Amino acid sequence: MNESSCAAVPLEWVGPIRISGDTVRDEVEVPLATYESPLWPSVRRGARISTMVESGILATVVDDRMARSVLLEADDARTAYTAVRLLEHDFGQLREVVSNGSRYAELIGLHHQIAGNLLFLRFEFTTGDAAGHNMATLAADQLLDHILRSVPGVRYGSISGNYCTDKKVSAVNGILGRGKNVVTELLIPREVVAQRLHTTAARVTTLNIRKNLIGSTLAGGIRTANAHYANMLLAFYLATGQDGANIVEGSQGITHTEDRDGDLYFSCTLPNLIVGTIGNGKHLGFAQENLRRLGCRAERAPGANARRLAVIAAATVLCGELSLMAAQTNPGELMRAHSQLERPATRIGAQR
Amino acid sequence: MNESSCAAVPLEWVGPIRISGDTVRDEVEVPLATYESPLWPSVRRGARISTMVESGILATVVDDRMARSVLLEADDARTAYTAVRLLEHDFGQLREVVSNGSRYAELIGLHHQIAGNLLFLRFEFTTGDAAGHNMATLAADQLLDHILRSVPGVRYGSISGNYCTDKKVSAVNGILGRGKNVVTELLIPREVVAQRLHTTAARVTTLNIRKNLIGSTLAGGIRTANAHYANMLLAFYLATGQDGANIVEGSQGITHTEDRDGDLYFSCTLPNLIVGTIGNGKHLGFAQENLRRLGCRAERAPGANARRLAVIAAATVLCGELSLMAAQTNPGELMRAHSQLERPATRIGAQR
Amino acid sequence: MNESSCAAVPLEWVGPIRISGDTVRDEVEVPLATYESPLWPSVRRGARISTMVESGILATVVDDRMARSVLLEADDARTAYTAVRLLEHDFGQLREVVSNGSRYAELIGLHHQIAGNLLFLRFEFTTGDAAGHNMATLAADQLLDHILRSVPGVRYGSISGNYCTDKKVSAVNGILGRGKNVVTELLIPREVVAQRLHTTAARVTTLNIRKNLIGSTLAGGIRTANAHYANMLLAFYLATGQDGANIVEGSQGITHTEDRDGDLYFSCTLPNLIVGTIGNGKHLGFAQENLRRLGCRAERAPGANARRLAVIAAATVLCGELSLMAAQTNPGELMRAHSQLERPATRIGAQR
Amino acid sequence: MNESSCAAVPLEWVGPIRISGDTVRDEVEVPLATYESPLWPSVRRGARISTMVESGILATVVDDRMARSVLLEADDARTAYTAVRLLEHDFGQLREVVSNGSRYAELIGLHHQIAGNLLFLRFEFTTGDAAGHNMATLAADQLLDHILRSVPGVRYGSISGNYCTDKKVSAVNGILGRGKNVVTELLIPREVVAQRLHTTAARVTTLNIRKNLIGSTLAGGIRTANAHYANMLLAFYLATGQDGANIVEGSQGITHTEDRDGDLYFSCTLPNLIVGTIGNGKHLGFAQENLRRLGCRAERAPGANARRLAVIAAATVLCGELSLMAAQTNPGELMRAHSQLERPATRIGAQR
Questions:
Q1: ipTM above 0.90?
Q2: Annotated domain spans of chain D
Q3: A11-63+180-344 CATH fold
Q4: Which of B87, C159, C290, D306 is the most exposed place for a label (fewest CB within 10 A)?
Q5: C216 and B217: CB-CB below 8 Å?
Q6: What is the DSSP string of B280-319?
Q7: What is the pTM of this model?
């Protein structure tokens, strides 16, 4: 691949990050590909802190599913409602349609919305180690065929009705789930907060309330309360062959902190991590290699590699979020970091 | 740069796209870097159509500014309010602070929010050909110093109060403006719609209402009504050295279509294109080269290159959005395209 | 009750409205209590039109439930997750707790959100003919006691965690359901549109797209696409003893229209009608009388009277929405109506 | 007015509430009309506390304006943009159109949104002591006439484009302003918190973060972070002849609290109080009398009576919000209050 046929996004390995919890118990270095070079030292600082806490970052996988919504036009709302009842009743049949059409996809949920004569059906799947966009679309296509043949009074509207929803801002993804939902938590001793982050638990918590919670609310945010999840996610996604456009929903997460007698409880909740270890992008040499080095190409039950990847992504997000939040408690620190790090032409990537 | 020190995102040039309007009158090929290879033919189809319309895609730059909000703690709301009145009165002085500290940044607006004793000040700047994250942060830092010295009863809260807002979902960016606001429009003759897109203006318009407007509303979207702006934006941003995480706010745009006696009026409104032709990422060889080939490194008045870039980005978005929307009017077309294009392991990148 | 001990909100009966569908097949007059007198002729015009269509307004009850969310503090996210799994497994036991504590409340659903160490549990109930605020709170209180006694590692956070959500703007209520979800539809012949509404199906549909869908999106609305549901709901709620503050979520509905060869398909989707025929406010003489006259105090299965009431409310909303939307297609009509109706001091109540 | 021609909403006077600040320095009793009788003791408790703090509730009026948006169809986005520039340039002329058409309305602001070929113009006015719906609509109508006559390439779309926005959920009202924006603050000594509210500043603050900020965010709220503003607003609005449907936007406010060494800082920010002392509803005998008793029918400069009313409304909201928040820190307190207060048929109105 020559220069002109790719965008060569600079990549550094950062870490290790210490992680514990139900899915990963490990110390891992992570690859971050970004044009914003100050992101590396920012995440590095957080990673260093994770290793100073015995159990490291506690990561919990709360959910794992992929969704696709189709859109049907019904004769009227009553017909739409009847169709929903019928499909719920025949859910087993729908499951068969999916399992017949795919080795990995499994139908695990069905939601709907009726607006006038329009029917939005949201199918939820497990998709093994794939992020699952494609598997979900294929399955939805087959389900749609089945429904159009078997349910009276409904017609094709669209293979995607935006109630999925992919690469767009929504509330539905956080409420019903789409992708891996991972919570990461770190309890940082008071002295580490002081010496490494040059701040206190009280000041970080005050900042989190005012900036991430109140500021985001004033800005008209929706299900968003963080400083810069998108930065870490994009760099991690690019480095591992993910579809980076999914940082749109990935960015919608919640930072929650507590001052626990001077120790800092710092958590990041990421409800919509859409990642996989197989599929588009992952076949590229560097992506394969990076995934392998992350331990995400091992022999495991279907889905386990992808969940490991999601946990590592989430831990990476915590490292960068912690570092920036701490910096913003101190007047001028962000610009000082910038002046030191961005020579000649760059800026502190972690700024927002 | 060796394999291990970058993420080599595959890049293809697509086009030309024909563009007219107040900023660009040209036919331009565009570079798209993506792991989702079906994005290329999808945008290519739209580009081809733009050349079949005499005036091509009409692009209008509606706004151009960068914003950063700082957060102050005041004694109480009254003190916050008094501070705002004072700063509005001394706006000229604030402008001087900014112009003294930067060759390119110019302060053009000041907004605020008061919540209890908290004061969020949102500064708006023009930043020449830079996207302006850094310039805005530096200027905000200097303004903050000035304010803390000159306004009684207020204290440092944060250099960023999330009322900016950067790389996060919001309503404020669309309402007050952040980045370039570009509207693109294309009026496609009925025969072209039929022969090239295999659909009709009526069907595209019906789909747009149901999917992009109603579906997005049901999903709990905020200021978002499109199919997949994020895909085109990320690919374009990566190819031109932009901070790709800004696709989060970039994704919040509105597709509006009309059936005009069989001809298809198709428009994309992108209120938050955060792009520049200088600054981080643009110093990389391939980015410089790509920007040059796009005609965005020419001798022009400050800001003109960046606006040209924004217009081309917006036109690219229209091409991809048009192509996908047309495809989704036809049952099965998306998956058929996928089966043809994604051998062996990929999927239609434009899906969502 | 003397003048000084009440707010005597002027009330008129409007109608009849012709309604069909799964719940109500009837012509009913409806009571509207409002300070905005032009609301009456506005709804009256819509009601008149409903009687010109043979089947009248088709109303479909799509859902019926009440929700209350409690908030728990857990040791960490993993403990919260374990608690959720446990409660889902023991759902039968939770159902017993509720049925033991109430004659009418039945637990029908459990949702959750985990953010850091916080656990939000959203309980869903059927509550017979009561709107159910109280019944749901009582049941949630008992469930909370049960959980605090039986689930390790969780502590009391709040009896309400705002994930319910009551009398506040949200997306969760529309997505998961709270109150009665009713869709009303009316297909109005072309001539009636012309003669009675002085407009066309095409113009109403164009207006609906631009104003209710695009305008609301630009305004940063959330799950809202209508002109003035709140007006009709408040007047109807006050007249029937409902808790009028529930118009906040009631206002979040979607108007969808179609031009069907000149006939106007007009629909209103109201996902969150929180009404009852027993409980607070309904014991007042006039409320009882009004409910009786609406046929909502009859001997029916528990819940049937309340659903009838919700359907009538929804049909009333359609009448007022149709009338205003038609008026706004014509320049100046709103102000002309106002000038005629608001002598000397009033205004067209239906304006917004 | 006989029973059958009104909805007689029970009303009690509660207070006095002690208020200070730029607009009101007074102790005032407030009338609350509601079917939810527990609202009275709830607000009463908060009012009592306000009198135990020497300066009472500090209220600051941060903004005061009314808005109406019109919708225009333009030839294309460029024409829309040119129209905006023209109107901004001729703003003085627009101001004249308004002042010629009304004694009280004054045009003070103009905002716009362009989406494709659609142009939304948002006019902002001061409207004296009227809430101003009507005055704004009349002025918008005249402005529309003027624009249609003088600006080329634009056509009538709608007298209201939902970018106003009235009685609907939005972000625009909070960001750009609509109605009175009032912040109320109360600093409650530690002992009062303990003895009267049976809680601590720390517990109230923790609850506020978890419930009002995080819970509302998870629920997909937009610019909303409170427990039950809508309850107090509706009761106050009904008692004073206001258009109660404006509680929809009124409900979108932010409760912010701090634990100040054991003292409780408690604030309510209400950006969209849409109230007046003249106009619809205020001519009714009881409304006039109630406004008079509130001191809002005095001889004052235009607008001053309405601002006084808004401040009193906002202080009332604080009283009820404080009381409920304190109650929810204690397990079981809400239901105990309910059991005591709602005999035989009522419930604690302040619950949500």
A1: yes
A2: 11-63+180-344, 65-158
A3: 3.90.770
A4: B87
A5: yes
A6: TTTTSHHHHHHHHHTT-SSS-STTHHHHHHHHHHHHHHHH
A7: 0.96
